[in-house]
Amino acid sequence: MNTLKYLQSNEFLLDVDLWRLFANLEELNKISLSFLKTFFETVKKHISKSDSPMDFNPILRMFFQGDLCQTHQIYCLNYTSAVFYLEKLRQREDFGIYLKWCEQNEQCKRLHLPELLVAPLHRLTRYPLLLNNIWKRSTDETEKSFIQSLKEKVEKSIRDLEGKVKWLDNFQKFRQLQEVIIWPQVWDRDKRFFVPEGLKQNLRENSSENILSSANRLLLHEGKLMLAESTRLLDVYLFLFDDFLLITKIKRNKKKYGGSDTSLIPVCPSLTPELQSFIREGGFCTVLDQPIPLDRLILKNVEPIQVTVFSLRNAFLIQHENRYRQCIALFLLQAQTETAKKAWMSQIETAISNYTTQHETKKRTAFCFPVESSEI
């Protein structure tokens, strides 16, 4: 961070956002160091004067009821965004030179910047252990009670933070998916639908990409499979969300819809390595058919003897039904291994079961509560 500040004062790397990369690291470093020094001064006083009691209460009260945890929280909430931003910056030659020079410094102890950036997260999770060790060695009941309350407060702070970090991580992930998943217009997706050029502008589906904008939606499973067509096997990439399944066709062109270059898009670290690698290669995914809601999805196992003629292995069938229980689409999919097939089928079955349970609970809640219920 200090090296970057120095370079920017000399008009290098001026477009690099110091906060996006390091957040409140300076403040965090200052308060952590202050806590450490004050803590060890108390220990030193006790050692030099063996008759003096080792009273940590004033220090613990000052820092744990003060800004120590809050400062950590601010840093941790920026962490996912910082890693995402770093991934983008590393593609630049000038930033790469700066990063390499810094990481070769002996103070880094052969650690790279991503490993250094995560260190404050680990430190925060160790504070309850420190408090617990002090609590164990305390003999005064009032002091023990105070330390226990501090420990519970820090643990609650960590739990709250984990929820926020997961939400932000999910938000970053879905923002990345919006970049790489392409939604063709209905007339491009299915040649049966003819629309004159003059009408296309009025009928453009602008809302399709917004399907992935909900930060409350969860991505449960994803991966590459083969889709059996009449004359060939097609590479497809499936995204299983907590409310629908999306089947996309893999495209390896450098150019995305609208002409932007996907190889320049920073890669979200929480995506699977397979998808990260695919995005770095400039790939994107074109939606093959409409999303399949989990309450309209029928999953069927395919025995090897049923598809021997087509040389298909590790196959299973996905059937899309409409609200009248009519089949409107079929997808015969092949996994690379039997294990991968079982994993996909298990994930889909679990997702359908959870989705059904949640919706049945919502229905019962909507119709069964009395009017005077305190829940309303």
Automatic annotation (TrEMBL):
It holds the Pfam family PH_13. It comes from the Eukaryota. Residues 218-353 form the PH domain. SUPFAM superfamilies: DBL homology domain (DH-domain), PH domain-like. Residues 1-171 form the DH domain. This is Pleckstrin homology and RhoGEF domain containing G7. GO terms for biological process: Rho protein signal transduction. GO terms for molecular function: guanyl-nucleotide exchange factor activity. InterPro entries: DBL_dom_sf, DH_dom, GDS_CDC24_CS, PH-like_dom_sf, PH_domain, PKHG5/7. Gene3D superfamilies: Dbl homology (DH) domain (1.20.900.10), Pleckstrin-homology domain (PH domain)/Phosphotyrosine-binding domain (PTB) (2.30.29.30).
